[in-house]
Design a protein that fits this description.
Length: 151
């Protein structure tokens, strides 16, 4: 027996709607999981458009710049990508892996003309992390780090 045309159209449209909804759900979950950050050089170049926005800045904690205020949880340091550097201030408990010469992503609201006030500090887990701009081997080192993290 053959289905009436109206019922076939309804079934086809229902299947398309379900598949479309599932696709949109998957896409939106991936978009929310992406962690994009600006390098210090990018953030400084885009400073006017980033003013007042919540952003992430990623790079290395520059050696010799980490200072702690005695008796408090306040710290200051520079995040660098080898070309640009941004002074960061933070108050709170830092991750165990946070230290000078280590990869870091800081999150906060950018304010022109001031130190970057970080709300969150994320330390990079791999000891081999080096931003591509700071690495002579560039892509080869990035692939090597990626393979290590997959093991």
């Amino acid at each position: 027996m053959s289905m009436p045309i109206n019922r076939r159209v309804f079934m086809i449209l229902s299947v398309i709607l379900v598949i479309g909804s599932l696709g949109a759900l998957v896409l939106s979950s991936f978009t929310g999981a992406l962690v994009y950050f600006h390098t210090p050089t990018e953030a400084l170049a885009k400073q006017p458009e980033l003013n007042g926005k919540k952003i992430r800045i990623g790079g290395m904690v520059q050696a010799g710049t980490l200072t702690r205020e005695a008796g408090t949880l306040k710290i200051r340091f520079l995040v660098t990508d080898g070309k640009g550097q941004i002074p960061v201030r933070y108050e709170g408990i830092v991750p165990d892996l946070f230290r000078e010469g280590q990869g870091v992503v800081v999150e906060g609201t950018w304010k022109n003309g001031q130190d970057f006030p970080a709300d969150t500090i994320l330390a990079k887990h791999s000891e081999d992390y080096v931003p591509v701009e700071m690495n002579e081997q560039g892509i080869a080192k990035s692939k090597e780090s990626l393979l290590k993290s997959l093991k």
